[in-house]
Design a protein that fits this description.
It is a single chain. This protein folds into three domains: 198 residues, 3-Layer(bba) Sandwich (FAD/NAD(P)-binding domain), CATH 3.50.50; 83 residues, Alpha-Beta Plaits, CATH 3.30.70; 68 residues, no CATH class. It is 33% helix and 20% strand. It has ten helices and 19 strands. The chain has a seven-stranded mixed beta sheet with strand order 6-5-14-15-16-13-17, sandwiched between helices. A hairpin with a 4-residue loop joins strand 10 and strand 11. Helix 5 packs antiparallel against helix 6 and helix 8 runs antiparallel to helix 9. The radius of gyration is 22 Å and the shape is globular. 47% of the residues are buried.
Length: 425
Amino acid sequence: MRLVNGSRVVIVGGGPAGSFSALHFLRLAAEAQLQLEIVLFEFRNFNRPGPGGCNKCAGILSSGLVKNLGMLNLNLPADVIQSELNSYVLHLGSTVMPLHHPDPTRRIYSVYRGSGPRLGTSPFPHSFDSWLLDQARERGAIIHHARVQSIRRGARPIVVTAHEQLEADLVVVATGVNNRIPLDPSWRYHPPRTEIMAQDEVPLPGGVLESSVHIFFDRPAGLIFGGLIPKGRYANISLLGRNLPPDAVGDFIESHELDALAPEGTPFLCGCTPRVAISSAKNYFADRLVVVGDAAVTRLYKDGIGSAFVTAEAAARTAIQRGVSRRDFAAVYAPLCRRITRDNVYGRLLFRLWGIARGLPPVMAAWRGAILAEADLPSQNHIHTRVLWGMFTGDESYRQMFWHAISRAAMLKLWQGFRQKWRER
């Protein structure tokens, strides 16, 4: 099962995973002097404001993803970038702990996946997803604005819409976990487990957040963490938790006394409750079929767009350089997905350790002391700052951060912070 000149690759889903898939196939096919027909199906208009044109995401581009865009010769336009994020501010009870980027040369941006909030006003922001899809179109992908109803098995898969049936040499499923995945049950695909987020947006008063993301914990009930993310003229509120109450965003603002951000009478502009994948899918590849993006596997809680990039690249490289059989994807694509899954194990450990530490005031006091002590050191000597920065930005692998967190140097700094706080009592 090999792709040859004239083979048709059908991509279902035009968000980042789908657009990156098209771009990787076009690049790698050109390098292999292979002429492919790349057909991409996407039913949404990403230039619409509100959930109807949006992929329901906090919309943060990690520095790793920003760097990887260069692999595809993509230059992020200034009008797509809403804010450059230079610091994260952790709110721990009455304590405010700023974290500055350990490496200022690495850039992190906030973007809109659609064209801004549903009740936003003109001028509407330029959608990241729309820009990326345009890049795929300009480089040769054929875009069909239609909803795929079913993907049937056969000698070659059949992609079915309301108006056509298209036979494919390979189908790439890039629908994400917030859309129905149109695979016929005979494929035996099982989607990832998910958790629910609560999101909304409010007008951003001048100078309130600037270039900082603010992270809060504990409230409302069930919250794992909540973020306030500056996006140009607006602030995005993203809450991740278990069994969050129906009015989670309102409870969050009231619980954390964020009146400066949302004084009484401030309208909520664009509420939604997207799902985030917390495990990998099962049977996410087969003969002439591969699933990419978070419908297959993604990093725990962070950098979903970055995961879409790497899974799309690995799937395209497998198909072009090796083949499109189940055995080919098992040999090249699956190991990459398993590495992400294994890395997420370290992520769960880190967030569990963080939760335990937050419940132990002496440990938190020592941790704050260690972070403050690092502020005057060169960035290469930052350990605790780097770990927390990576946890909340997705800037490094969880495995690297875990071993940094329990390293001898980290424990020594924590002990020094503990002794310092003890002397001050």
